[in-house]
Amino acid sequence: MNKNELEDIEIRLLLEGIFHYYGFDFRRYAPVAIKRRIRNILYLEQLATVSALQEKVLHDRTFLEQFLNYMTVNVTAMFRDPQFYLTFRHKVIPLLRTYPFIRIWCAGCSTGEEVYSLAILLYEENLYHRCRIYATDINETVLRNAQAGIFPMRLMQEYTQSYLQAGGKQSFSEYYTAAYDNAIFRAFLKQNIVFSQHNLICDRSFNEFNAILCRNVLIYFNQSLQQQVHQLLYDSLCLFGILGLGNQESLNLSHQERYYKQLAGRERLYQKIS
């Protein structure tokens, strides 16, 4: 048995242990992504083997939060992929206007940039006052950061450009207050957002939504887990509800594909039709 084969066994044991002891299930994440993240943890924590990492995470509960921070991908930005938001304005907003009250789920919201982007867009379209956005993530640490609504000031120039490309209608700086090196987003943007922990892998549907954004999450799951999450998203959408995926994700080959129509193929926006 070579070193890589032994490492694979250790990783399987680690993931099984975390699932059975803590209930967090990483067993069906994409193997290449999992191995890359675990090797990075070993380097950062100066651990020699995956078995040493297993001992640390199972016997030191305080380390679990740090482990989850390492394992969950929190790469995001405000108005990321501006064309998605521009298309959302033009094709989804008119559909949402037909509802007296609008429920939207941002699944895997990370540190919240996507949630605030959506809140700003809905505000500018005069819909935010009759919306409730549910922002969920597996990681409680990033949820706390999202709820705070504080982002590095150095990113605001980049975010302003993306906001304008996404069809922004005002001065982006009106939505935040500059304080030292941070931008603190306006309190009114949080008024209709519910931040809550939710695990896409093992938690169930918790409401019926008019729109769900689950962008750049599924790419980290293996095929069977993608199918499971697609079923969860389908079960959570109302008839004629809208599903938004990341630009590297699609409904192709999913069991649910036939129950949707493409609203905007390039932007990965779909409408549930049955």
From TrEMBL:
Signal peptide feature range: none
Taxonomy, superkingdom: Bacteria
SUPFAM superfamilies associated with the record: Chemotaxis receptor methyltransferase CheR, N-terminal domain, S-adenosyl-L-methionine-dependent methyltransferases
Residue stretches making up the CheR-type methyltransferase domain: 1-274
InterPro entries, per database record: Bact_Chemotaxis_MeTrfase, CheR_C, CheR_MeTrfase, SAM-dependent_MTases_sf
Name by which UniProt lists this protein: Protein-glutamate O-methyltransferase CheR
